[in-house]
Amino acid sequence: MTLLGRHDDLLPPGSALVDLDIHSVIEWLPESIARELLVIPIAKIDDTLHVVMSDANDFVKQDRLRFMLNCAVRAYQRSESEIKSAIIHFYGHGEGESADSLLMDFTETETVERLVAEISELEIGVDSHGLARRANVPIPQKKKSLGRFGGLPDRHIYDLQRSRGMLHYIVEEGEQVLVRHGDGTSKIVAGPAKIWRGFKSIQPMAQYVAYPGQYIKVMNRDGSQQHVRGPAKRWLDPRIHEQMLVEDGMTLATNEAVVVYGKNTASRGESDIGEVGDENGDGISRRVFYGPGIFIAEPGEWLHQFSWHASHGGSRGIEKKPHGRKFETLWLMPDQMYHDVRDVRTADDAVLTIRLMIFFELNDVEKMLNTTHDPIGDFVNAATSDVVEFTGKRTFEEFKGETEMLNATTTYTQLLHRASQCGYQINNVVYRGYGAPESLQKMHDDAIQSRTKLQLEQETERQAQDLEDYKLQCQMERATKRREEQTNEIEHEIDLKRRQANSKRLSEAEDARSKRELQRLQSTLSTEIESERLSLQREHLEGLRSMGVDLTEYLTQGKADQVIEMRGTDSRPHIHLEKKALAPK
Predict the structure, then answer these.
(1) Which helix (H) or strand (E) covers residue 577, if one does?
(2) 512 in a domain, yes or no?
(3) Most distant CA atoms of the chain, gap in Å
(4) 168 is in which domain, residue-wise?
(5) In whole angstroms, what is the distance from residue 56 CA to residue 133 CA?
(6) pLDDT at 358
(7) Beta bridge partners of 426
(8) Are 524 and 532 in contact (CB under 8 A)?
(9) How far is CA 81 from CA 53, 54, 78, 143, in A?
(10) In this structure, what are the phi and psi dihedrals at residue 432, rounded to the nearest 5 degrees?
(11) Are residues 233 and 271 in the same domain?
(12) Position 543 in a domain
């Protein structure tokens, strides 16, 4: 990149073109173009070539430069004579037009003139520096290059159609072009390559790229069609292909499936479930593609379009309408729906609306396809029939007393039978309540209010009685506790007295035993002392006797305490003795 300073300083006022150092920039502009258009380059900044021309507002000349050089152009204005002097100074003297210019006129004049006519109608503007510039509008493509393809439809197509120069066309690496010769022959040239323009018509080829999960729909001019699975890329050859489209495959999650019709046999992830005949007598196979996976239809195949009863609220909707849901993907997981059976009459002509929730699951796709076109509609009709049969046999009061039976699947015999025929399984049916007309509902509400009022009064009285019972029970419990406490106190006193008596008795017995033992010891001691005294007295008396002492006299020599004398002649004497008190010792 060559830079002379800021954009404002590229061409300072009063500076001469011949004094600029632009030798490295001259190579960006061929001499033939510079002499023909009277322009001189002064700088190349990024992808923009800054040039000086005699009229900066000549947008046709600027667009010709953009077309020839394949880059953006920014124009500055100087006099024509100064520009010619600069061309001679930097390019040298030349006589007439160069061979390149002649060849360009010979091969490209018609194309350039047509392009200039188209460019002249484009919107133009002026930048902040007062320099004229063309709006950022891409160079229009010749309709012939797009032909029947109608343009480049999406981001998966890489448009390579752009001019590369006047004499040569450069095919970059990764690109392809279709080169048509004057004799009508054509060939494909893959880059990198350099093609001499001459009398050739060069048409870039659009590349279509499909990423994983996508496919390229190739429609050939002979009526055949191929689907190329991604990742892949294809070049659109207008000699062979009529059109190419990049489309996304159908993504299927677990427990999802699609029904496919066609002449091909089943492949991986698919189940061949039968054949049907078309109106021409050809055999058409029907298969099911199960997820998880990405389904890409083969040429000539189409998907089964289901149109079932549904409501605007989805599974929670209550009013099912025919053809309310149109889809292609079957859901093999358990599902549910809300259903209200309206205007059902009881045995006593009460009109009710029964609200249900039905849980179901698809088990057999083949049976469903062969037996019904709308299983939801069949479920609605069967459930309605079962509810009408159940309600019509009972009065309103009987119905209210037996509503729990509406939660049992055995009540819905027709629903279970029809679901089994369609390849479905009814897992559960939930009764969500009932609705009644305004008059009946008002009577029912009044009855509920009266019943509720009586129940509240009964509950209030019951609570009052319970309170009295509770008080009495508490009093009885307190009296019982009081008696128990008194009994415990008396028993404690009795036990204490018993223990005291036992202790006293034991103490007295111990005292008596001690006394008896003491008396025994005293008696024994007295006996021993007396025995010792008597022994000593005996020894003393024996000693006296041995010495010849008359023991009788000795023992009686003292004054008698009492003398008893007996006299008389009577053979039967009487003796009367008076006991005298002994003197205290």
Answers:
(1) none
(2) no
(3) 229
(4) 143-248
(5) 8
(6) 94
(7) 360
(8) no
(9) 10, 9, 9, 40
(10) -105, 10
(11) no
(12) no
pLDDT at 533: 87
- Asked if the structure places residue 527 within a domain, the reply is no
184: tokens are: 């009508």
Residues in the chain: 585
Residue 255 has pLDDT above 70, yes or no: yes
Residues 63 and 114 in one domain: yes
Q: Are residues 294 and 324 in the same domain?
A: no
pLDDT at residue 424 tops 90: yes
Give the per-residue pLDDT at 548. Answer: 82
Structural domain includes residue 443 = no
What's the rounded Cα separation, in Å, for the pair 42 and 20?
8
Q: What is the dihedral of CA 252, 272, 367, 309, to 10 degrees?
A: 40
Q: Which of 160-169, 265-274, 372-381, 550-559 has the lowest mean pLDDT?
A: 265-274
Contact 227, 300 (CB under 8 A): no
* pLDDT at residue 5 is higher than 60: no
Strands (E), 436-551: none
CA dist., res. 65 & res. 56, Å (int):
13
Residues 113 and 97 in one domain: yes
Give tens-digit pLDDT for 528-544: 888 888 888 888 888 88
Say whether both 319 and 266 belong to one domain.
no
Indicate whether 21 and 127 sit together in one domain. yes
* Spatial CB neighbours of 175, under 8 Å, sequence gap ≥ 6: 160, 190, 191, 204, 205
Structural tokens at position 563: 């003398």
The tokens for 177 are 């072009």
Residue 382 structure tokens:
């069967």
CA dist 487 and 246 (Å) reads 103
Share of the chain above pLDDT 70, in %: 76
DSSP state of 559: P
> According to the model, what pLDDT value does residue 580 have?
57
Q: Which amino acid is at 504?
A: K
Among 207, 230, 248, which residue terminates a domain?
A: 248
Q: Is the peptide bond before 192 cis (omega within 30 degrees of 0)?
A: yes
Verify that 319 and 432 share a domain, yes or no: yes
Residues paired with 339 in a beta bridge: 356
Q: State the DSSP string of 411-447.
A: G-HHHHHHHHHTTEEEEEEEEEEEE--HHHHHHHHHH
User: How far, CA to CA in Å, does 92 sit from each of 26, 32, 81, 97, 285?
Assistant: 12, 12, 15, 13, 79
Dihedral angle of Cα 142, 143, 148, 153, to the nearest 10 degrees: 70
Whether the per-residue pLDDT at 327 is higher than 50: the answer is: yes
Q: How many helices (H) and strands (E) does the chain have?
A: 12, 28
Neighbours of 197 (CB within 10 A): 20
Report the pLDDT value the prediction gives residue 354, as an integer from 0 to 100. 92
Q: In whole angstroms, what is the distance from residue 431 CA to residue 235 CA?
A: 62
Q: How many domains does the chain have?
A: 5
Which CATH number belongs to the domain containing residue 97 in this structure?
A: 3.30.300.160
Of 465, 480, 502, which marks where a domain is finished? 502
Residue 14 and residue 100 in one domain: yes
CATH number reported for the structural domain that contains residue 414 in this entry:
3.30.479.30
Residue 322's CB is within 10 A of a number of other CB atoms, namely 11
**Residue 383: which residues within 8 A CB-CB, separation 6 or more?**
339, 341, 356, 358, 412, 415, 429
The per-residue pLDDT for range 115-173, each reduced to its tens digit, is 444 444 333 333 333 333 333 333 334 333 333 333 344 444 444 444 455 678 899 99
Radius of gyration of the chain from Cα atoms?
Answer: 67
